[in-house]
UniProtKB/TrEMBL annotation:
InterPro entries: 4Fe4S_Fe-S-bd, 4Fe4S_Fe_S_CS, DUF362, Fe-S_Ferredoxin
SUPFAM superfamilies in the cross-refs: 4Fe-4S ferredoxins
Domain of life: Bacteria
Originating species: candidate division WOR-3 bacterium JGI_Cruoil_03_44_89
Protein name per the record: 4Fe-4S ferredoxin-type domain-containing protein
GO molecular function term, any single one: 4 iron, 4 sulfur cluster binding
Domain 4Fe-4S ferredoxin-type: 183-209, 211-240
PANTHER family: ADENYLYLSULFATE REDUCTASE, BETA SUBUNIT, FERREDOXIN III
Keyword line: 4Fe-4S, Iron, Iron-sulfur, Metal-binding
Amino acid sequence: MKSKVYFIDFGEKGKERVYERIAKLIKESNIPGTFKKGDIAAIKMHLGEDSPFFIPPVYVREIINILGETGVDFFLADTTTLYVGSRRNAPSYIMRAVHNGFSAVGLPIIIADGLRGQDYKEVSVNGNHLKRVKVASAIYYADSILLLSHFKGHELTGYGGAIKNLGMGGIAKADKLFIHSGVHPFVNQKRCNLCGVCVQWCPEDAISLGDYATINPERCIGCATCLSVCPQNAIKINWGNDSKLVQESIAEAALGVVKGKRLACINFLTSITPLCDCNPMQGAPLCPDIGFMASFDPVAIDKASIDMVEKKTGGMMTSLRPHIDMGIQTRHAEKMGLGNEIYDLIDLS
């Protein structure tokens, strides 16, 4: 059975405000119908790093205005990161969210996996890689989820969207580490010129310089930042195995996060950058802003987002990383029962 995916573009210049387009999408797709009066609902989203590439808080505020009559207690939710940065623990992440303007949304900000990323409840999924998922506690105890995802490229999985927002962003540190533990970056000695950029950007101080850069496997967390910042393209991973393992594990974790919950998804096809929002070395967006999608199926909305961005850019996401099969994520998620790759696109533009 096909899943419905709703789409709306930015509209004709000077004719309609973007907020009105978002409101139309939410109402026509019946996003409010996901929630029941009395729910405690997590708005699961990335609250930003030290870069401008995240969902603008004003968009979130508009969504809350539309959903304000549902009688639901919403809260903004995300989890801490493996790497040492502004999202490494709850106090630091909350301060980053405030700095990025999310206090203006007017909702509580809850770091769902607790003070240091150790608060979770286990959920059984019986996947190929994960038998049980360590779901961040505040998300586990929520009645329902509104998933707001910034769609973009990703250096390890090819793209990041709804599935990754759930499967990496909804779990505790221990499972993040497990998922990344199969990623083993290594240095091509002949290409390394000892520039030190990888050393500068490694969040775990896992790289040192000698005759060439060396990665300490005991400290490496598999985040792949070094891979994307190296100007000599000297750092590699085994793409066939490592990317497949990560993508499938993310899909399995996503199933654990949403198990037993009502879910509504909105993908923002805006500021579509080639790299993950967490990456400090972002380039320019791949294309002009496209619009917004809504669905109750995280697999369908990701597949529709990929298809539309590839169509708009002439296949740029694939050409950027021909060694990554982006379809692994959606195919495995469908196999696990998270949703359907086959969809009907309903254009509200």
